[in-house]
Write a structure and sequence with these properties.
- Helices cover about 0% and strands about 40% of the residues.
- It has about 110 residues and is an all-beta fold.
- The chain has an eight-stranded antiparallel sheet with strand order 5-4-10-1-2-9-6-7, with no helix packed on it. A two-stranded antiparallel ribbon has the order 3-8.
């Protein structure tokens, strides 16, 4: 989340133009749904620690440092025992998501809020 952008004090004292008075609230376009802890190359799955509920079939974005976000559909989800599940409803649960490309740690998954 973030507030509406402005030039602030970049060009000197902005007086009333330096702050958006119409809306002081935060813009929340996305919701973080999980932290990528690793990648299982053998089974081609992301290993994720869930942060907010998401379900199989939802469109997610993978955010990696130094790369633009990649949108994909999380078609197949697995729990920590390798069993297929329909959703990841429990905070901090381990979830595996079928994904064809290696992903390093320190990445996260988000979904667009509608």
């Amino acid at each position: 989340s973030h507030r509406e952008y402005s030039t602030g004090f970049y060009y000197g004292n902005p007086l009333e133009q330096g702050q958006n008075y119409e809306s002081a609230g935060y813009l929340r376009e996305y919701e973080v749904v999980g932290l990528v802890e690793g990648y299982d190359s053998l089974n081609r799955r992301l290993i994720v620690s869930q942060r907010n509920k998401f379900s199989a079939g939802e469109t997610l974005e993978l955010v990696e440092a130094g790369r633009p976000p990649v949108e994909f559909s999380a078609e197949v989800l697995y729990n920590g025992k390798g069993e297929r599940i329909l959703s990841a409803p429990h905070a901090a649960m381990r979830v595996e998501i079928a994904y064809d490309h290696y992903v390093g740690g320190m990445s996260f998954l988000r979904k667009k809020k509608y």
